[in-house]
User: Fold this.
Amino acid sequence: MIISVFMKPKLVLIGGFLEGGKTALLLKIGEALTNDYGKRVVMIVNDQGEVLVDSVIAGDCRFEIAEIIRGCFYCDFQVFIKYAQKILEELMPDVILTEPVGSCGCLMPTLYNPIQEFYSNEFEPAPLIIMVDAFRLLKLHQEINLLDAGDYIVYFIASKIKEGDNV
Ligand SMILES: Nc1nc2c(ncn2[C@@H]2O[C@H](COP(=O)(O)OP(=O)(O)O)[C@@H](O)[C@H]2O)c(=O)[nH]1
Ligand SMILES: [Mg+2]
Assistant:
């Protein structure tokens, strides 16, 4: 498949924890790109039992919400890339918006870097956004010491947050 550089869609990944506001932000970005910039936007939503914000459920979106394969396809890079290529071929979007499930580990080694390395002729990854609910993080800090770098849970949380270009 030969794709001109002008057809390359931006791939916007938003990571973070469950209920961090990933879907809400993706919807805002999608709306703005569609309404204010006239871009063709497709959003890939996950189906891992995470609650989608109301407007997705109500179908109150002007842009395309793509169906997804059941299961965490972010854990399987080949499945994800095949799905993204199918969207590219069938819907020819300017922008693909997507969020991994909250339980996913780090996105740089599993998604972002492989796309950059092997599929940069088809997709242009946007800077990685990580959504964090600051109030919830502060509350959690009262239960476990988030400054304890030796704790496995703290390490997991910190790794996920630190990899973001924007938090
Ligand atoms: N107050 C407030 N609530 C928000 C905001 N963004 C998301 N939410 C709410 O937080 C909950 C989780 O948001 P969602 O986008 O589904 O989080 P996700 O699990 O990271 O995709 C939903 O009930 C949203 O309505 C925000 O900026 N302010
Ligand atoms: Mg979500």
